[in-house]
């Protein structure tokens, strides 16, 4: 019988999935990134599975037998892809299964910011509701407005469908390439970034973080938005310049924002927290029981395939397998 390969689980994985992995592999679970050097020094590691850790040359140089990193996420900006390619290490991810859940959150942020739900919830609980509300407490409509999607990929299209078919919104989008099928399905119109920012009532950021999208939305771009517009970011925090956003919200250059992601995560204190026209949640785009389970199962399946010799369902850098 061939020797079992060794797998390190970083971050949490449900016990039954650890058991499933243990049928084929020797499995070690780590509680924190600080434990990784010891785990790698203890013997050859062939596979890593988890999410949320920065992994590149510094962390992985000692992992000389590493064949695959299976990420329980769709975004892979935590990983130094150039280094993984150089080393011939396969990276797998978990797209599709989180698309609808993340789109639900984007809609939630739009609605919550537009109707001032968090602010008015706090106001009510503080005992302020003593008479009929006046326009100082009114929000703005979502239905029938113009929704601008920056990055009409899987999640962007799912948000656009909600906007178009659920809320009768007009959809604008920008992405690397035109999407004729989605244009037809959604009646969506392509705009360059500046055009989209100027015309949209809701701007939803859903691009992957890359050198090209780092601080894609900064002071200039926020300045192009309507003063009545709402910005939602469910992509990555670094895509939006947070200092510029705080300023734009404070000065009411834009109406409001809804954020799931931040330049620094986790975030325990920030000038953002002082703004009542901001709704902020702690990176919960895919954080439902059903979806996190589906992501973990898919990541386990990707890892099993990679280490047992089948092509994984979702490879970020399939060329390393072909080479
Ligand atoms: P996807 O299907 O790959 O879609 C990404 C879209 O972004 C594509 O349409 C792409 O355009 C477009 N794009 C890339 N660079 C661009 C640029 N410079 N300007 C304009 N558009 C650009 O990915 P997805 O599954 O929708 O996920 C998108 C991102 O959301 C992920 O990378 C991840 O960072 C983030 N995310 C966050 C959460 C959360 O918990 N908040 C959950 C899941 C994902 P082309 O198709 O034309 O190349």
Automatic annotation (TrEMBL):
<dbReference type="InterPro" id="IPR029753">
    <property type="entry name" value="D-isomer_DH_CS"/>
</dbReference>
<dbReference type="InterPro" id="IPR006140">
    <property type="entry name" value="D-isomer_DH_NAD-bd"/>
</dbReference>
<feature type="domain" description="D-isomer specific 2-hydroxyacid dehydrogenase catalytic">
    <location>
        <begin position="7"/>
        <end position="317"/>
    </location>
</feature>
<dbReference type="InterPro" id="IPR036291">
    <property type="entry name" value="NAD(P)-bd_dom_sf"/>
</dbReference>
<keyword id="KW-0520">NAD</keyword>
<dbReference type="Pfam" id="PF00389">
    <property type="entry name" value="2-Hacid_dh"/>
</dbReference>
<protein>
    <submittedName>
        <fullName>Gluconate 2-dehydrogenase</fullName>
    </submittedName>
</protein>
<dbReference type="GO" id="GO:0030267">
    <property type="term" value="F:glyoxylate reductase (NADPH) activity"/>
</dbReference>
<dbReference type="InterPro" id="IPR006139">
    <property type="entry name" value="D-isomer_2_OHA_DH_cat_dom"/>
</dbReference>
<keyword id="KW-0560">Oxidoreductase</keyword>
<dbReference type="InterPro" id="IPR050223">
    <property type="entry name" value="D-isomer_2-hydroxyacid_DH"/>
</dbReference>
<comment type="similarity">
    <text>Belongs to the D-isomer specific 2-hydroxyacid dehydrogenase family.</text>
</comment>
<feature type="domain" description="D-isomer specific 2-hydroxyacid dehydrogenase NAD-binding">
    <location>
        <begin position="107"/>
        <end position="285"/>
    </location>
</feature>
<dbReference type="InterPro" id="IPR029752">
    <property type="entry name" value="D-isomer_DH_CS1"/>
</dbReference>
<dbReference type="Pfam" id="PF02826">
    <property type="entry name" value="2-Hacid_dh_C"/>
</dbReference>
<dbReference type="GO" id="GO:0005829">
    <property type="term" value="C:cytosol"/>
</dbReference>
<dbReference type="GO" id="GO:0051287">
    <property type="term" value="F:NAD binding"/>
</dbReference>
<dbReference type="GO" id="GO:0016618">
    <property type="term" value="F:hydroxypyruvate reductase [NAD(P)H] activity"/>
</dbReference>
């Amino acid at each position: 019988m061939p020797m079992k390969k060794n797998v390190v689980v970083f971050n949490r994985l449900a016990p039954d999935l650890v058991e499933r992995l243990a049928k084929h592999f020797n499995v070690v679970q780590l509680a924190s990134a600080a434990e990784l050097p010891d785990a790698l020094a203890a013997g050859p590691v062939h596979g890593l599975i988890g999410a949320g850790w920065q992994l590149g040359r510094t962390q992985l140089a000692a992992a000389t037998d590493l064949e695959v990193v299976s990420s329980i996420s769709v975004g892979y900006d935590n990983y130094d892809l150039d280094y993984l390619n150089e080393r011939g290490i396969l990276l797998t991810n978990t797209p599709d299964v989180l698309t609808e859940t993340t789109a639900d959150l984007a809609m939630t942020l739009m609605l919550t910011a537009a109707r001032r739900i968090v602010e008015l919830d706090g106001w009510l609980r503080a005992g302020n509701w003593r008479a009929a509300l006046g326009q100082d407490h009114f929000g703005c409509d979502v239905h029938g407005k113009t929704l601008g999607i920056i990055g009409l990929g899987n999640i962007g299209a799912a948000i656009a469908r909600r906007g178009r078919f659920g809320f009768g919104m007009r959809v604008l989008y920008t992405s690397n390439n035109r999407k004729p099928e989605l244009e037809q399905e959604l009646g969506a119109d392509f705009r360059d970034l500046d055009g989209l920012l100027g015309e949209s009532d809701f701007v939803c950021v859903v691009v992957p973080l890359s050198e090209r999208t780092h601080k894609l939305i900064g002071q200039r771009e926020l300045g192009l938005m309507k003063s009545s517009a709402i910005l939602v970011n469910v992509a990555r925090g670094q895509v939006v310049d947070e200092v510029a956003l705080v300023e734009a919200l404070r000065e009411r250059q834009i109406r409001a924002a809804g954020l799931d992601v931040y330049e620094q995560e986790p975030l325990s204190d920030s000038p953002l927290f002082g703004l009542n026209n901001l709704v902020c949640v702690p990176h919960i785009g895919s954080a439902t029981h059903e979806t996190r389970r589906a992501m973990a199962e898919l990541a386990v399946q990707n890892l099993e395939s990679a280490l047992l010799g089948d092509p994984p369902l979702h490879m970020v850098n399939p060329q390393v397998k072909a080479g």
